[in-house]
Every structure is written in C-alpha cells, then in structure tokens.
Amino acid sequence: MNINATLIGQSITFFVFVWFCMKYVWPPIMSALGERKKLIADGLAAGERGKHELELAEKRAKEDLQTAKAKAAEIVAQAEKRAGVMVEEARTNARAEGERLVAAAQAEIEREVNRAREQLRGQVGAVAVAGASRILKREIDAKAHNDVLNDVIAQI
C-alpha cells in the first residue's frame, strides 16, 4: 500500500465524516445549545426580575410596617386619651357621690341634732318644773302651765 493512497482515502473519509456531522449531527446540537442558552438567559432575567420584585416587596413591607406603627401609635394615643377621660369622669362621679354622701350625712346629723334638742328641751322643761315645784314646795300642774313651759322651752 502506498502512503499517498491511504492519506487520500483518510482525507476523503474525514471530509465525508465532517459533511455527515455538519448535516445531521451539528444542527440538533446547535439547536439544543441555543435552547439551553435561551433558557439560561430567561432564568437570569427571571432572577433579576425576582430580585427587583423582592426589593419592591421589601420596600412595601417597610412602608406597611411604618404605616402599621403609625396606626398603632395613634390607637395607643386614643386609648390613653380615652383612659384619661374615663379617669376624669370617674373622679367627677366620685366627687359628686362624695358630696351627696356628705350632704346626706349632714342632713342626718342636723335631724339628730334637732331630735336631741327637742328631747333636751323636754327634759329641761321637766327639770324646770321639778325645780320650780321644789322651790315653791308644791306641785305645779304641767297641763295648766303648758303655755308658760313652751315659752321657756323655746327660749332655751
């Protein structure tokens, strides 16, 4: 065998192999690589979109948190204000109730004082009659001298 014929045969076989690969093997590989390249690009783009959406979501979450904190502070302020109003109402009601109880107690004391005065007047009248009867050494009729005794009691 001649080396030239072998070399020419190998060259022809190589060119047929290259043509076969370019015609039947290369296009499916290139389309698969293109699809893979597109898939990777879409994945990267989706990752960027996801990253951007995550940043927006974090920003919205911070805004929502600030809004919630502001509302909570407002609710707390309203609750404190309402608590102050309720405490003031309770104080006012307690003062009114205390004044009412003091007035009732003073009225009761006044009634007791008047009752005691009436009893004392009656006892003073009886003592006065007893003293006068001893002084006069005779018994005085309380019914007969009732007007005089009532006048003495009223002066006391």
Feature tags:
mainly alpha
3D structure, described in words:
It is built from 2 helices and no strands. The chain is mainly α and 156 residues long. The longest helix is centred in the middle third of the chain and has 134 residues, at 3-136. The relative contact order is 0.03. The model has no long low-confidence stretch (mean pLDDT 86).
Strand fraction: under 5%
The string of secondary-structure elements, in order, is: HH
Shape: rod-shaped
Alpha carbon gap, first and last residue = 170 Å
Number of strands: 0
Please provide a brief summary of the model.
With 156 residues, the chain is mostly helical. It has two helices and no strands. The chain is rod-shaped, with a radius of gyration of 60 Å.
Question: What's the helix and strand layout?
Answer:
Layout: H1 3-136, H2 146-155
Helix pairs in contact: 1-2
